[in-house]
Amino acid sequence: xxxxxxxxxxxxxxxxxxxxxxxxxxxxxxxxxxxxxxxxxxxxxxxxxxxxxxxxxxxxxxxxxxxxxxxxxxxxxxxxxxxxxxxxxxxxxxxxxxxxxxxxxxxxxxxxxxxxxxxxxxxxxxxxxxxxxxxxxxxxxxxxxxxxxxxxxxxxxxxxxxxxxxxxxxxxxxxxxxxxxxxxxxxxxxxxxxxxxxxxxxxxxxxxxxxxxxxxxxxxxxxxxxxxxxxxxxxxxxxxxxxxxxxxxxxxxxxxxxxxxxxxxxxxxxxxxxxxxxxxxxxxxxxxxxxxxxxxxxxxxxxxxxxxxxxxxxxxxxxxxxxxxxxxxxxxxxxxxxxxxxxxxxxxxxxxxxxxxxxxxxxxxxxxxxxxxxxxxxxxxxxxxxxxxxxxxxxxxxxxxxxxxxxxxxxxxxxxxxxxxxxxxxxxxxx
Length: 431
Description:
single chain, alpha+beta, nine-stranded mixed beta sheet, four-stranded mixed beta sheet, about 20% strand
């Protein structure tokens, strides 16, 4: 007999999963624990809608997120709606328009998102995303805070902050400065270089850099190999030390005509300083994180470009040796608020709770339950209510056998309802 998916309508679509009681309890317990952790850091909970007009949901977020978003026409307005594929842009919109505070705003969230396809073998098309965002705060203090909060959440989830976890760091501005120096910013070649670096494809990168000016070819070839511990930063400084006189020559000449030679030189100097500043920022973050989490492994990848068009500074991800996908990802994204008419500094992170729950040890092991007989007795009802107020699970027996989770029972002994281990006596009858 041919059993196609259409003949089995109860089957879920590929990449769409459900959580049965045990897994659902683990995920929910983890969700509460992590949101409570964010709350004591001052992060306030928000709940954005599942669906919005694509005009708002996808503005300024880049092609990658656009491709991940399910879109449907709105039968009321005729406009296109999108099911959120990432909650961060929604929270940025809320900060810009619904909250509108001038000072730093700390927000956290948890909710289901929907993807048109899976992003990795370990991921779902309906991840349960939890994250925290800090708006209105510039500087490394804000970047360090969100990284430290993310790591604190891992600790709250029962994950040991040791060498089994790796904090992966990068900086979106490094690649941006190199494409500007090579005079390919905004071109098809920039997109091709980005794609090759994203895939870590050395053959494709070698083919593309032949199209660059001679002085820029070595910079991009070197960028792919800049991975490892903090010694990578010094290697990057040496490798990019000659970028100003060679690569900025054409830019300086163009700017010299437009704005004058002195201003052009200052502009070029600022670009070089910014590249150095990116390396210094990474160095400073590593120093702080290593001092506060000395057992954590830290890895640098200066060619990490995930979210390149979205992020504007330090980017980070947390990996576990036992999982093929990132536990959490984040970084600075100062440009997102601008598309909502209110540009604000912003940094934050997000994680997939379902993936987290596969590793979390905090848990959710059951404390057992108490079986109660189905007896109409005011004293029994009063005791059951009191036990439930104490967070005990009490399950009324409606069949011949109590629920399998029950390791204790309420029995009537000498005219008094008493909790005792199951099977040590029969469940009490009429009082």
